[in-house]
Amino acid sequence: MLALAALALLSSAAALTVNSPAALTECQPVQLSWSAGTPPYYPAVIPAGQPGAASLVTFPQQDATVATWVVNLAAGTNVTIKLTDGTGATAFSAATVVQKGTSTACLTAAPSAGASNTGGASAGGSASGSASHAASGSASASASASAKPSSGDKVAAPALAVLAAAALVAAL
């Protein structure tokens, strides 16, 4: 009975989610947003279908749940927004293809304020799978978790809940 109550409490905790942008247009601003999780947040733009890939664009640490990005990637680029929170939980947006804009000036200019192009990996977290969207977590002795994106508007990465539930089940 106690185990069921604990599992119910864990499942009611809000999971980190990334809101998928309606559209991405080259050289146009877009507001990225997310909910739940624990600040600080580390948003990044990665190639769609490659959750462990190096970031195409990284953002500075965010304490709020929104960030504005002037899309400085060429039309036709298929991307996913990856978000890692202060606990290491990771969530992904749906895959989105950058659309052609009326200007390409930002593609050769310096990156927009608050974002930068990089060849390095984004901060924190680990992921595996493809960029379609259902989150699944797996526990390990190091308390890491894997998030597997699946299709949908939002993806939750309930890594901490999975770890706690696994520990609770093991204790039974």
From TrEMBL:
What are the record keywords, sorted?
Answer: Signal
The region annotated as signal peptide is 1-15
Q: Which domain of life is it from?
A: Eukaryota
- PANTHER family the record matches: CHROMOSOME 1, WHOLE GENOME SHOTGUN SEQUENCE (PTHR37487), EXPRESSED PROTEIN (PTHR37487:SF2)
Q: What is this protein called?
A: Uncharacterized protein
